[in-house]
Automatic annotation (TrEMBL):
Name of the protein: Gamma-D-glutamyl-L-lysine endopeptidase
Family of this protein: Belongs to the peptidase C40 family.
Highest classification ranks of the organism: Bacteria, Pseudomonadati, Pseudomonadota, Alphaproteobacteria, Rhodobacterales
GO molecular function: cysteine-type peptidase activity
Keyword Transport: no
Enzyme class: hydrolase
Biological source species: Roseovarius tolerans
Record key words, sorted: Hydrolase, Protease, Thiol protease
Length: 249
């Protein structure tokens, strides 16, 4: 059995086995390949990166999507009125099918979403770090992929996908797949990536990183040298790679 389906919940854990541990998360409207059904669980792989796992079958739907949430987060309201009750909260990166426009709002199957919080799917960002900066202060969450909780590789993937760049889901795979290796001593610039064993961070400027990290339990800025020294001191070793992305304008 292989068929394309969409995520129908605001957020769902992608688990390594039914009832198992979370590996990643999938957002409203993201596409998956349905591999099979085991009881109440669907075996799927995410179209964004091929990540395999299990989600509740009830989280799947069919349909189309036309827009994505470009704000950090938004609400779908019960009417085209900001005073109406909200139906659901949606994260940056969630995908929706816009049926019509009513003033400041876009009508979607989930409710009425502020138009200012949406962009067409084919509208790409040009600076992945600016996407990461939208998520400053987001709580750290192992395996997280949303504005409600995110980890280091989720933050990197969010920036890449918003810019139309393919990106694996885990930092180890990202180190192998993303960009070109910089020579030792080469000056860093915005949009570069620093990798450690089990960790990755964006370069915001030559002296500053932005990353989701356990030390701060949030997405934060941190001086490059402070992060390098701290991570080495806590026993996680030196920087393993410095990469520069290709395909950015």
């Amino acid at each position: 059995m292989t068929a394309t389906r969409l995520i129908d919940w605001p957020l769902v854990d992608l688990r390594r086995a039914p009832e198992g541990a979370r590996d990643r998360q999938l957002l409203m409207g993201e596409a998956v390949q349905l591999v099979g059904i085991k009881g109440a669980w669907a075996e799927v792989s995410a179209l964004r990166d091929g990540y395999p796992g299990y989600i509740p079958e009830a989280a799947l739907t069919s349909g189309t999507v036309t827009h994505r949430v470009s704000a950090r987060a938004t609400h779908a309201y019960s009417a085209a009125d900001f005073k109406s009750p909200e139906r659901v909260s949606l994260s940056h990166g969630a995908r929706l099918d816009v049926l019509s426009e009513q003033g400041r709002f876009a009508e979607t199957p989930q409710g009425y979403v502020p138009r200012a919080h949406l962009v067409p799917l084919d509208q790409r960002e040009t600076d992945p770090v600016s996407v990461a900066e939208i998520l400053i202060g987001t709580p750290y969450l192992w395996g997280g992929n949303s504005a409600f909780g995110i980890d280091c590789s989720g933050l990197v993937q969010a920036g890449c996908l918003a810019c139309g760049l393919p990106c694996p889901g885990d930092s180890g795979d990202q180190e192998g797949a993303l960009g070109e290796t910089l020579p030792e001593g080469a000056a860093l610039r915005r949009g570069d990536l620093l990798f450690w064993r089990g960790h990755v961070a964006w370069v915001a400027d030559p002296d500053t990183l932005i990353h989701a990290n356990v030390h701060h339990m949030a997405v934060t800025y941190e001086p490059v040298q402070d992060a390098i020294s701290r991570i080495a001191a806590q026993g996680d070793g030196p920087v393993t790679a410095r990469k520069r992305l290709k395909g950015l304008t």
